[in-house]
Amino acid sequence: MAQRLTATERATLGTTVPGWAAVLDRDALRRDFKFADFSEAWGFMSRVALLAEKFDHHPDWSNVWNTVRIELTTHDAGGLSANDVRLAQAINSILG
After folding, report:
1. Is residue 77 part of a domain?
2. How far, in Å, CA of 6 to CA of 81, rounded?
3. Contacts for 3 with CB less than 8 Å, ≥ 6 apart
4. Residue 81 lies in a domain
5. What is the pLDDT of residue 2?
6. Which residue, among 16, 26, 35, has the nearest Cα to 82 in the 3D structure?
7. Which domain holds residue 85?
8. How far is CA 36 from the centre of its chain?
9. Structural domain includes residue 40
10. What is the pLDDT along the chain (96 residues), one digit of tens a residue?
């Protein structure tokens, strides 16, 4: 079972997963991604879906036209875990 991040690990999230921010009302990370249009947003979501399957860790997400919002948390750990950090880093790598 995944373990929740420690306070020390949480303190480094700004540099570990740039662009991601803590969600105020739950123990999760969130990032909004904006694209030129729906097609680019959908393509990004497809690439993230493949990563999620590879990591066996799936995001809570939504898409409205050119914007994709992703939230990461580990439900069986009851909050943020290293699984979320790894997936956030992999998602960031898609964008270069």
Report:
1. yes
2. 9
3. 77, 81, 82
4. yes
5. 87
6. 16
7. 24-95
8. 20
9. yes
10. 789 999 999 999 999 999 999 998 999 999 999 999 999 999 999 999 999 999 999 999 999 999 999 999 999 998 999 999 999 999 999 997
Cα Rg, the chain, nearest whole Å: 13
9 domain residue, yes or no:
no
Cα dihedral sign, 40-42-47-52? positive
Percent helix, strand and coil across the chain, each to the nearest 5: 45, 25, 30
Q: Which residues contact 40 (CB under 8 A, 6 or more apart)?
A: 66
Query: Would you state the structure tokens that stand for residue 51, as one six-digit string?
Result: 């990563």
Report the CATH number at residue 41: 3.30.1360.20
Ordered alpha helix ranges (H), the chain: 7-11, 13-16, 38-55, 82-95
